[in-house]
Amino acid sequence: ASTLAKELQAGQKVVVVRCEEINISGSLFRNKLKYYAFLKKRMNTNPKKGPFHYRAPSRILYRVVRGMMAHKKSKGKAAMARLKVFEGCPEMYNRTKKMCIPRAIKNIRLKPNRKFCRLGDLSTLGGWRHNDLIAKLEAKRMVRNSAYYEKKKALDAILKQAKAETKEELKDIDAQLAELGYGEIMPNYGSGAKAEGAAAEAKEEAKEDGGDDDDDDDDEEDE
């Protein structure tokens, strides 16, 4: 949550999916007692004014991140507007590349003998009623994704085979395209800036060499 808060404050847009699978350090029983104590906190005279106790895992995460923000100021409101949280994985983010936070991985943060619990189980004890439904939908999504991935691998293999079979036939055409700058697209990995810097240095050296040659020519003419 702290990493999310830092990224949001830095201007990044963050989408968190499968919030029910978040791991919390400590046993489920201990976290249940802490959550039940939190549920008892209320306004004495008018409870409808807050505090509001969210049961859904996504809203629990949202509230935790909000507690790290100046959410009543304009910059905090703008930062929270850049955060989206979901249980499960919506279809619009299903085939989007996903990233995990390395410093938040359980195997790195917790010792092997430490207890932990799942946020979805804690929310279920608190009154959230959609844990089984989300698990069922996620199982269906994984089956669909597995079928899609197998189909993609088969198409990639066919494309690779076709390229290998037609390589000799298209040798001349590939050479002509390469001369025009339309060769195979290779990953850059941020080396463009280095290449530009090297080109600029080469130009400067060429200018210096050219100026020296001109001076030599002038000297020869004077002689």
- What is the radius of gyration? 30 Å
How many strand elements? 4
Number of H- or I-type helical stretches: 9
Report the average pLDDT across residues: 85
Global geometry: elongated
Which sequence of SSEs, written as H and E, runs from N to C? Answer: HEEHHHEHEHHHH
- Percent of residues in beta strands: 5-15%
How is the main sheet built?
2 strands, parallel
Spatial order of the strands forming the largest sheet:
1-3
Your description of this structure?
The structure is a single chain. This protein has a two-stranded parallel ribbon. Mean pLDDT is 85; it is low at 212-223. It is built from 9 helices and 4 strands. The chain is elongated, with a radius of gyration of 30 Å. It is 56% helix and 5% strand. It is mainly alpha-helical and 223 residues long.
